[in-house]
Amino acid sequence: MPESVEVEYYRRLADRTVGRRITAVDAPDAWFLKGGLTGRALAAAVTGRTIEGARRIGKLLLLDTDGPTVGLRFGMTGRLLVDGVAGVEDLQYSSMRDEPAWDRVTFRLEGGGDLRVRDPRRLGGVLLDPDESRLGADVLSITPVQLRQALARSTAPVKARLMDQGRVAGVGNLIADEALWRAGIDPARAAGSLSDAELRRLHRHLRTTVDELLSRGGSHTGDVFHARTPEGLCPRDRTPMLRRTVGGRTTWSCPKHQR
DNA sequence: ATTGTGGCCTGCCCGC
DNA sequence: TGCGGGCAGGCCACAA
Fold first, then answer.
1. What is the CA A130 to C1' C14 distance in angstroms?
2. Average confidence score pLDDT of chain A
3. What's chain A's Rg over C-alpha atoms?
4. Could you state, in order of their start, the residue ranges of all structural domains in chain A?
5. Closest nt to residue A74, judged CA to C1'
6. Whether CATH 3.40.50.2300 fits A4-133
7. Gap from A100 CA to C3 C1', in Å?
8. Which tens digits make up the pLDDT trace of A116-174?
9. Using CA atoms, how far apart are residues A153 and A192, in angstroms rounded to an integer?
10. Does 1.10.8.50 match the CATH number of domain A136-253?
11. C-alpha distances in Å from residue A63, one per residue of A43, A56, A163
12. Distance (Å) from CA A248 to C1' B6?
Protein backbone atom coordinates (compact mmCIF):
# COMPACT_ATOMS: atom_id res chain seq x y z
CA MET A 1 0.00 0.00 0.00
CA PRO A 2 1.18 3.55 -0.39
CA GLU A 3 3.49 4.33 2.47
CA SER A 4 6.17 7.01 2.25
CA VAL A 5 8.03 4.90 -0.32
CA GLU A 6 5.18 4.83 -2.81
CA VAL A 7 4.26 8.45 -2.20
CA GLU A 8 7.87 9.38 -2.92
CA TYR A 9 7.50 7.66 -6.30
CA TYR A 10 4.30 9.64 -6.77
CA ARG A 11 6.16 12.85 -5.96
CA ARG A 12 8.77 12.11 -8.58
CA LEU A 13 6.02 11.41 -11.10
CA ALA A 14 4.21 14.59 -10.13
CA ASP A 15 7.37 16.54 -10.94
CA ARG A 16 6.31 16.15 -14.57
CA THR A 17 3.49 18.60 -13.93
CA VAL A 18 5.69 21.40 -12.61
CA GLY A 19 5.36 24.49 -14.77
CA ARG A 20 2.03 23.36 -16.22
CA ARG A 21 -1.25 25.21 -15.76
CA ILE A 22 -4.44 23.64 -14.45
CA THR A 23 -7.30 24.18 -16.88
CA ALA A 24 -10.05 22.20 -15.14
CA VAL A 25 -10.77 19.97 -12.18
CA ASP A 26 -12.99 16.89 -12.18
CA ALA A 27 -14.02 15.86 -8.66
CA PRO A 28 -16.97 13.50 -9.09
CA ASP A 29 -16.72 11.98 -5.61
CA ALA A 30 -17.68 14.35 -2.81
CA TRP A 31 -16.53 11.81 -0.20
CA PHE A 32 -12.99 12.17 -1.50
CA LEU A 33 -12.90 15.89 -0.76
CA LYS A 34 -11.83 16.47 2.84
CA GLY A 35 -12.12 19.30 5.32
CA GLY A 36 -15.41 20.65 4.02
CA LEU A 37 -14.00 21.05 0.53
CA THR A 38 -16.41 20.96 -2.41
CA GLY A 39 -15.73 20.29 -6.05
CA ARG A 40 -16.82 23.79 -6.87
CA ALA A 41 -14.47 25.34 -4.29
CA LEU A 42 -11.54 23.22 -5.39
CA ALA A 43 -12.06 24.11 -9.02
CA ALA A 44 -12.39 27.78 -8.19
CA ALA A 45 -9.21 27.70 -6.12
CA VAL A 46 -6.86 26.05 -8.59
CA THR A 47 -8.24 26.51 -12.10
CA GLY A 48 -5.85 28.76 -13.98
CA ARG A 49 -3.10 28.20 -11.44
CA THR A 50 0.32 26.88 -12.38
CA ILE A 51 1.89 23.97 -10.52
CA GLU A 52 5.19 25.16 -9.13
CA GLY A 53 6.42 22.16 -7.18
CA ALA A 54 5.69 18.72 -5.82
CA ARG A 55 6.63 17.96 -2.22
CA ARG A 56 6.05 15.05 0.11
CA ILE A 57 5.72 14.91 3.89
CA GLY A 58 5.22 11.38 5.10
CA LYS A 59 2.37 9.92 3.07
CA LEU A 60 1.02 13.33 2.05
CA LEU A 61 1.77 14.59 -1.46
CA LEU A 62 1.73 18.37 -1.79
CA LEU A 63 1.26 20.20 -5.07
CA ASP A 64 2.27 23.83 -4.70
CA THR A 65 0.71 26.25 -7.13
CA ASP A 66 1.06 29.99 -7.59
CA GLY A 67 -2.09 30.02 -5.48
CA PRO A 68 -3.03 27.42 -2.87
CA THR A 69 -1.39 24.09 -2.11
CA VAL A 70 -3.22 20.88 -2.95
CA GLY A 71 -2.71 17.93 -0.59
CA LEU A 72 -3.25 14.41 -1.87
CA ARG A 73 -3.63 11.36 0.35
CA PHE A 74 -3.71 7.86 -1.07
CA GLY A 75 -4.97 5.67 1.75
CA MET A 76 -3.83 2.17 1.06
CA THR A 77 -5.19 1.70 -2.44
CA GLY A 78 -4.69 5.04 -4.16
CA ARG A 79 -2.51 5.45 -7.22
CA LEU A 80 -1.26 8.59 -8.91
CA LEU A 81 -1.41 8.83 -12.69
CA VAL A 82 0.17 11.63 -14.69
CA ASP A 83 -0.55 11.79 -18.41
CA GLY A 84 -1.79 8.22 -18.15
CA VAL A 85 1.42 6.95 -16.54
CA ALA A 86 1.13 5.27 -13.15
CA GLY A 87 3.56 6.18 -10.40
CA VAL A 88 3.53 2.63 -9.11
CA GLU A 89 2.78 -0.50 -11.08
CA ASP A 90 2.84 -3.05 -8.28
CA LEU A 91 0.62 -1.88 -5.45
CA GLN A 92 -0.14 -4.46 -2.78
CA TYR A 93 -3.76 -4.84 -1.65
CA SER A 94 -4.99 -2.61 -4.45
CA SER A 95 -6.13 -3.45 -7.94
CA MET A 96 -4.18 -3.04 -11.13
CA ARG A 97 -7.30 -2.85 -13.26
CA ASP A 98 -7.54 0.12 -15.54
CA GLU A 99 -10.86 1.39 -14.27
CA PRO A 100 -11.58 5.08 -14.93
CA ALA A 101 -14.60 4.89 -12.62
CA TRP A 102 -12.09 4.81 -9.77
CA ASP A 103 -10.70 8.22 -10.70
CA ARG A 104 -11.65 10.27 -7.65
CA VAL A 105 -10.07 13.56 -8.72
CA THR A 106 -8.51 14.75 -11.97
CA PHE A 107 -6.57 17.93 -12.61
CA ARG A 108 -6.57 18.62 -16.33
CA LEU A 109 -3.51 20.42 -17.57
CA GLU A 110 -2.92 22.94 -20.31
CA GLY A 111 -1.96 21.40 -23.63
CA GLY A 112 -3.50 18.03 -22.77
CA GLY A 113 -2.60 15.48 -20.17
CA ASP A 114 -3.66 15.40 -16.57
CA LEU A 115 -2.87 14.35 -13.02
CA ARG A 116 -5.35 12.02 -11.38
CA VAL A 117 -5.83 9.94 -8.25
CA ARG A 118 -7.29 6.49 -8.89
CA ASP A 119 -8.47 4.87 -5.67
CA PRO A 120 -10.77 1.82 -5.74
CA ARG A 121 -11.51 1.85 -2.02
CA ARG A 122 -11.81 5.60 -1.63
CA LEU A 123 -9.53 5.64 1.41
CA GLY A 124 -7.49 8.58 0.18
CA GLY A 125 -8.56 12.18 -0.22
CA VAL A 126 -7.93 15.70 -1.41
CA LEU A 127 -7.20 18.62 0.90
CA LEU A 128 -6.78 22.31 0.15
CA ASP A 129 -3.94 24.03 2.01
CA PRO A 130 -3.50 21.14 4.47
CA ASP A 131 -2.11 21.86 7.91
CA GLU A 132 1.45 20.61 7.49
CA SER A 133 2.32 21.36 11.11
CA ARG A 134 0.21 18.41 12.21
CA LEU A 135 2.76 15.99 10.74
CA GLY A 136 5.85 14.80 12.55
CA ALA A 137 9.37 14.51 11.20
CA ASP A 138 9.52 12.75 7.86
CA VAL A 139 10.88 9.22 8.07
CA LEU A 140 13.36 9.84 5.24
CA SER A 141 15.09 12.65 7.09
CA ILE A 142 14.29 12.07 10.76
CA THR A 143 17.22 12.58 13.13
CA PRO A 144 18.07 10.41 16.14
CA VAL A 145 17.02 13.25 18.43
CA GLN A 146 13.66 13.56 16.70
CA LEU A 147 13.06 9.83 16.94
CA ARG A 148 13.91 9.90 20.62
CA GLN A 149 11.44 12.74 21.16
CA ALA A 150 8.77 10.84 19.24
CA LEU A 151 9.10 7.77 21.45
CA ALA A 152 10.15 9.15 24.82
CA ARG A 153 8.03 8.71 27.94
CA SER A 154 5.26 6.84 26.15
CA THR A 155 3.56 3.70 27.35
CA ALA A 156 2.03 3.05 23.94
CA PRO A 157 3.52 0.23 21.84
CA VAL A 158 6.59 1.41 19.95
CA LYS A 159 4.93 0.37 16.70
CA ALA A 160 1.87 2.53 17.44
CA ARG A 161 4.08 5.56 18.05
CA LEU A 162 6.08 4.94 14.91
CA MET A 163 2.86 4.91 12.90
CA ASP A 164 1.48 8.04 14.59
CA GLN A 165 1.77 10.49 11.69
CA GLY A 166 1.89 13.41 14.09
CA ARG A 167 5.11 12.04 15.60
CA VAL A 168 6.82 10.34 12.69
CA ALA A 169 5.42 10.97 9.23
CA GLY A 170 5.48 8.24 6.62
CA VAL A 171 5.66 4.96 8.56
CA GLY A 172 2.88 2.54 7.66
CA ASN A 173 2.26 -1.01 8.70
CA LEU A 174 4.78 -2.71 6.44
CA ILE A 175 7.65 -0.29 7.08
CA ALA A 176 7.02 -0.45 10.83
CA ASP A 177 7.14 -4.25 10.92
CA GLU A 178 10.21 -4.36 8.67
CA ALA A 179 12.24 -1.79 10.62
CA LEU A 180 11.37 -3.29 14.01
CA TRP A 181 12.23 -6.75 12.70
CA ARG A 182 15.59 -5.53 11.46
CA ALA A 183 16.27 -3.70 14.71
CA GLY A 184 15.32 -6.77 16.76
CA ILE A 185 12.72 -4.87 18.80
CA ASP A 186 9.36 -6.28 19.85
CA PRO A 187 6.63 -4.08 18.30
CA ALA A 188 4.57 -4.31 21.49
CA ARG A 189 7.32 -2.88 23.72
CA ALA A 190 6.38 0.39 25.40
CA ALA A 191 7.88 3.15 23.26
CA GLY A 192 9.42 4.82 26.28
CA SER A 193 11.17 1.64 27.39
CA LEU A 194 13.75 1.63 24.62
CA SER A 195 17.33 2.12 25.75
CA ASP A 196 19.64 4.64 24.10
CA ALA A 197 21.30 1.83 22.21
CA GLU A 198 17.94 0.50 21.01
CA LEU A 199 16.85 3.97 19.93
CA ARG A 200 20.02 4.41 17.90
CA ARG A 201 19.58 0.96 16.40
CA LEU A 202 15.96 1.62 15.49
CA HIS A 203 16.84 4.97 13.95
CA ARG A 204 19.53 3.41 11.80
CA HIS A 205 17.28 0.59 10.63
CA LEU A 206 14.35 2.90 9.99
CA ARG A 207 16.45 5.02 7.66
CA THR A 208 18.13 2.11 5.89
CA THR A 209 14.83 0.24 5.57
CA VAL A 210 13.19 3.12 3.75
CA ASP A 211 16.27 3.68 1.58
CA GLU A 212 16.33 0.03 0.60
CA LEU A 213 12.61 -0.21 -0.08
CA LEU A 214 12.92 2.88 -2.29
CA SER A 215 15.70 1.31 -4.34
CA ARG A 216 14.03 -2.11 -4.46
CA GLY A 217 10.72 -0.77 -5.72
CA GLY A 218 8.16 -0.53 -2.94
CA SER A 219 7.09 -1.04 0.64
CA HIS A 220 6.27 -4.69 -0.15
CA THR A 221 9.90 -5.53 -1.04
CA GLY A 222 11.13 -5.89 2.55
CA ASP A 223 12.90 -9.00 3.78
CA VAL A 224 10.03 -9.91 6.07
CA PHE A 225 7.16 -9.28 3.65
CA HIS A 226 6.92 -12.83 2.31
CA ALA A 227 6.92 -14.19 5.87
CA ARG A 228 3.64 -12.43 6.70
CA THR A 229 1.66 -15.68 6.44
CA PRO A 230 0.49 -18.29 8.97
CA GLU A 231 3.28 -20.61 7.81
CA GLY A 232 5.87 -17.83 7.64
CA LEU A 233 9.33 -18.32 9.12
CA CYS A 234 11.64 -15.55 10.30
CA PRO A 235 14.11 -14.96 7.45
CA ARG A 236 16.86 -14.47 10.01
CA ASP A 237 16.51 -17.48 12.34
CA ARG A 238 13.70 -19.60 10.82
CA THR A 239 11.50 -19.23 13.89
CA PRO A 240 7.75 -19.34 13.10
CA MET A 241 6.51 -15.77 12.81
CA LEU A 242 4.09 -14.40 15.39
CA ARG A 243 0.89 -12.71 14.26
CA ARG A 244 -0.71 -10.22 16.64
CA THR A 245 -2.69 -7.02 16.64
CA VAL A 246 -0.50 -4.17 17.85
CA GLY A 247 -1.56 -0.56 17.66
CA GLY A 248 -4.76 -1.76 16.02
CA ARG A 249 -2.87 -3.26 13.09
CA THR A 250 -2.01 -6.77 11.98
CA THR A 251 1.56 -7.23 13.17
CA TRP A 252 4.07 -9.90 12.23
CA SER A 253 7.23 -10.32 14.28
CA CYS A 254 9.81 -12.89 15.28
CA PRO A 255 9.26 -14.03 18.89
CA LYS A 256 12.88 -15.15 19.13
CA HIS A 257 15.05 -12.24 18.05
CA GLN A 258 12.65 -9.31 18.53
CA ARG A 259 12.77 -8.46 22.20
C1' DA B 1 -3.05 14.94 27.01
C1' DT B 2 -2.66 10.03 25.92
C1' DT B 3 -4.11 5.63 24.53
C1' DG B 4 -7.27 2.25 22.72
C1' DT B 5 -11.24 0.83 19.91
C1' DG B 6 -14.48 0.63 16.26
C1' DG B 7 -16.14 2.12 11.83
C1' DC B 8 -15.61 3.60 7.23
C1' DC B 9 -14.29 2.61 2.39
C1' DT B 10 -14.75 -1.79 -1.32
C1' DG B 11 -12.09 -5.16 -4.35
C1' DC B 12 -10.44 -9.59 -3.86
C1' DC B 13 -9.78 -14.25 -2.18
C1' DC B 14 -11.19 -18.35 -0.09
C1' DG B 15 -14.33 -21.96 1.01
C1' DC B 16 -18.74 -24.01 0.51
C1' DT C 1 -20.42 -22.24 -10.54
C1' DG C 2 -21.98 -18.48 -7.84
C1' DC C 3 -22.14 -16.46 -3.56
C1' DG C 4 -21.06 -14.64 1.04
C1' DG C 5 -17.96 -13.74 4.70
C1' DG C 6 -13.62 -12.18 6.04
C1' DC C 7 -9.69 -9.46 5.15
C1' DA C 8 -6.57 -5.54 4.04
C1' DG C 9 -4.91 -0.64 6.67
C1' DG C 10 -4.94 4.68 6.72
C1' DC C 11 -7.55 7.81 8.92
C1' DC C 12 -10.88 9.77 12.00
C1' DA C 13 -14.39 10.07 15.66
C1' DC C 14 -15.09 8.90 20.07
C1' DA C 15 -14.50 6.92 24.79
C1' DA C 16 -12.01 6.31 29.01
1. 23
2. 92
3. 19
4. 4-133, 136-253
5. C10
6. no
7. 27
8. 999 998 989 999 999 999 999 999 999 999 999 999 999 999 999 999 999 999 999 99
9. 4
10. yes
11. 14, 9, 24
12. 10
